[in-house]
Amino acid sequence: MKIPLILGIVAAFLSACNPAKRDVVPQSPLSSTTATPVVATSLLINAKHQIRTTVYVVDDVVMVQMQNGTRQRLTGINPALYPDFQSVFFRIQDNNRDGFNEIAVLAGVSFGATERCYDVFHYNFKRGMFERRWEDFYCTSR
């Protein structure tokens, strides 16, 4: 009985100490107060409904800004990954063939960067926001 309680306390402590996972909403991509240079990437999520988003990194957070101006925090990241892997940091694909592209965000790389692992976020049309689906997490070689 004591071990699950201790593990819960340790997990809560580690979560609170990890700045990349804090639930913060940074400013828009045009903000000049950020320490990390902000490069915004425009992505087409659905051509039929003309849904576009802008995805960008602010410090240690990946943000999505919808065309109507609403912002959503997707995930925290290791900020050291972004400068070296900026060209492959975001991917879009429609793996489930629902007509909406998913956004894949680089979550980590193997030693030597031979494999890259991605978190996948699906667009929920009814809610108008992205949702992470853990079962779609994947790794790929270069």
From TrEMBL:
Keywords: Signal. It comes from the Bacteria. Residues 1-22 form the signal peptide. This is Lipoprotein.
